Amino acid sequence: MRIIKRYQNRKLYDTETSRYITLDELAHLISEGVEFKVVENKTGEDITSTVLTQIIYESEKKKKKILPIDFLKKIIQYGEESLNDMLEKLSLIEKANLREAEKRIRELVKKSEPRADGGKTKFKEILTTAQTGVQEIEKKVDEALQEAINRIPGLGTVVKELRQIRSELDELKKDVNKLKKRSSRS
After folding, report:
1. 81: helix, coil or strand?
2. Taking the domains of the chain in order of start, what are their residue ranges?
3. What does DSSP assign to residue 80?
4. Would you tell me how many other CB atoms lie within 10 Å of the CB of residue 94?
5. Which of 7, 13, 29, 43 could form a cystine bridge with 34, CB 3.0-4.6 A?
């Protein structure tokens, strides 16, 4: 992990490139996905979150509007609860929704075996409904988290969790499509 030292004069020193860097350059590193840690030179204290907050502040001052006002209000409203904790909870809620949808789809599939008396059409309707449900959950995940994660630097763990959710959704879609194909062959 790349180490950035902050000196008493507030200058940031990149130990990997052996040169001073600006907040803008640090923001650029973030946009490139470079993992780093900012430490106070004298004490070794991790001050990464403070420096990231500074980057957001400077961007807002320049009218770049990184974060929606409602989101900023939520951060203040939750006070002691860290932003990371807040986003992790949101991620857990979405994972629970995904598991619930997956469970309902499996129950529907078990209940709706194709029958000679026209049950095949009902089976296809249920599969279509299940696929629509998966798409709705995917949309909710994207709407609730995508903007915040894309605009807030340093949330690598949340991004990993979202990738896992995306992977699970893709697996679920594949299962539904397999069932559709199997149903259409019957």
Report:
1. coil
2. 2-66, 77-185
3. T
4. 20
5. 29
Residue pair 51/38 in contact (Cβ under 8 Å)? The answer is yes
Alpha helices in 20-82 (DSSP H): 23-31, 48-61, 69-78
**pLDDT the model gives residue 184:** 73
Average pLDDT over residues 51-75: 76
Joined together, the tokens standing for residue 46 give 């991790």
The answer to whether 2 and 12 have CB atoms below 8 angstroms apart is: no
Which tokens hold the place of 73?
Answer: 């209000």
155 has a pLDDT exceeding 80: no
C-alpha distances in Å from residue 24, one per residue of 12, 95, 157, 177: 11, 35, 23, 46
For residue 74 the two structure tokens come to 């939520």
Six-digit token pair at 120? 């095949």
Instruction: Give me 21's structure tokens.
Output: 């860097």
Query: Please, which pLDDT band fits residue 160 given cuts at 50, 70 and 90?
Result: low
Place of tokens 């009218």: 63
